[in-house]
Recover the amino acids of this structure.
């Protein structure tokens, strides 16, 4: 991983050669562009759908709704211990195969076979068609030809990814690039205490990634979460990250802050003082077998002593945050239309050893939820006014460099897909 600090002259934006001109957000308010993104991005890139801890034993499964790709997948651990994914559709009449009371809701469980609710066709955990009700009524039915349609699946550091494009042969690790290689070895498997949040957001999926890819807004939007003295101090001096970097479609920002306990106790809320915890996590970091100086090279890449957190954006919609007090956050942004998406936030901690540690973790989790709600509510206001098109160009500052990169990357994927479609003589949305 490159180790560099902000150039003495110039800026991160100039250093990373992103461009400095005002930007358009037409890609976030255009239904037509969203349809192009569905085809060019969400049907053709690696998507993180979960973790291996969700599949603790043979026969464990979970489903994932991928509205942007117009499908649902079922992810299962087979009898051989391998993790596989299949399109969640019965080969008989196209019914959704795995669901409970409500077909659009995700589900999970353990089973020996998958049985269709409509006509009781059954499939084993490897996707093979195992049983057909009244098989003799069919005409020369070859069960071997009607197994579940498999989806390419790979696991990186315990994170399960799928790729819906059968022609995409790029291995997951190669796609994730240098950031992922530089994170490998972090003990994600030890962080099995999980808190999850899910919200329906009235904005384009990229706008929420924008909100978490810069800290320029934090002193203003989140001022109500700070003690008065802390709020005044942060608003006066602003906020500056330690390090920005880009690798292909992916990006990262390394931040100061998150150092526990805070140096100035006058800025700590009473409940934070009582529990020794807050937004940045429990002050007493659990032992995960890694000292700060031994962290993988992509984490705190500048090796700054003020470091508190790294945020990695793995394109298109997976964000991984690694915090100094030895816990992890993930964000997912699942589009449902050009101006709506599902946001999922998941907190991962080392399992608590007592009630006090559990309360520390819960305070960190609810603090994150409050910040997330403030961001989500603001984004709905942003979306409505962008759609007015009263203003069409917007200036971005140096702290917003990763926003430029995200939108440029999304447009590039669309343009590349359209170009390849034109060369092949097929419609770009096929």
């Amino acid at each position: 991983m490159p180790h560099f600090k902000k150039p003495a002259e110039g800026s991160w934006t100039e250093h990373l050669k992103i461009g400095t001109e005002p930007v358009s957000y037409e890609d976030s308010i255009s239904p037509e562009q969203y349809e192009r993104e569905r085809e060019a991005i969400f049907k053709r890139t690696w998507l993180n759908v979960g973790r291996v801890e969700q599949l603790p034993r043979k026969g464990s499964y979970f489903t994932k709704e991928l509205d942007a790709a117009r499908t649902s997948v079922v992810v299962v651990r087979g009898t051989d211990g391998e993790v596989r994914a299949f399109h969640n559709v019965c080969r008989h009449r196209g019914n959704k195969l795995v669901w409970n009371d409500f077909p659009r809701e995700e589900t999970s469980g353990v089973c020996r076979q998958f049985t269709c609710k409509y006509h009781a066709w059954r499939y084993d955990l490897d996707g093979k068609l195992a049983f057909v009700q009244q098989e003799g009524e069919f005409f020369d039915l070859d069960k071997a030809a009607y197994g579940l349609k498999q989806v390419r699946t790979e696991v990186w550091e315990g994170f399960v990814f799928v790729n819906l494009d059968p022609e995409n042969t790029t291995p997951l690790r190669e796609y994730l690039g240098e950031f992922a290689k530089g994170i490998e070895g972090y003990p994600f498997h030890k962080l099995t205490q999980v808190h999850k949040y899910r919200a329906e957001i009235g904005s384009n999926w990229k706008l929420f990634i924008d909100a978490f890819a810069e800290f320029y807004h934090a002193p203003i939007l989140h001022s109500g979460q700070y003690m008065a003295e802390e709020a005044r101090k942060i608003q006066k001096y602003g906020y500056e990250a330690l390090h920005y970097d880009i690798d292909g479609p992916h990006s990262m920002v390394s931040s100061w802050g998150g150092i526990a306990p805070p140096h100035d106790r006058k800025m700590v809320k009473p409940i934070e003082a009582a529990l020794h915890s807050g937004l940045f996590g429990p002050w007493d970091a659990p032992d995960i077998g890694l000292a700060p100086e031994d962290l993988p090279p992509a984490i705190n890449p500048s090796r700054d002593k003020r470091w508190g957190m790294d945020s990695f954006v793995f394109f298109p919609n997976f964000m991984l945050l690694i915090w100094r007090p030895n816990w992890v956050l993930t964000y997912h942004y699942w589009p449902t239309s050009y101006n709506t998406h599902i946001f999922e936030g998941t907190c991962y901690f080392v399992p608590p050893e007592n009630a006090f540690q559990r309360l520390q973790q819960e305070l960190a989790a609810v603090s994150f939820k409050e910040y997330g709600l403030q961001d989500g509510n603001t984004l709905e206001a942003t979306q409505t006014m962008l759609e007015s098109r009263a203003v069409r160009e917007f200036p971005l500052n140096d702290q917003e460099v990763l926003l430029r990169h995200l939108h440029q990357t999304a447009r590039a994927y669309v343009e590349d897909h359209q170009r390849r479609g034109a060369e092949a003589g097929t419609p770009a949305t096929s």
About this structure: Residues 12-40+178-422 form a domain with the Naphthalene 1,2-dioxygenase Alpha Subunit; Chain A, domain 1 fold (CATH 3.90.380.10). The chain has a mean pLDDT of 90. The chain has nine helices and 17 strands.
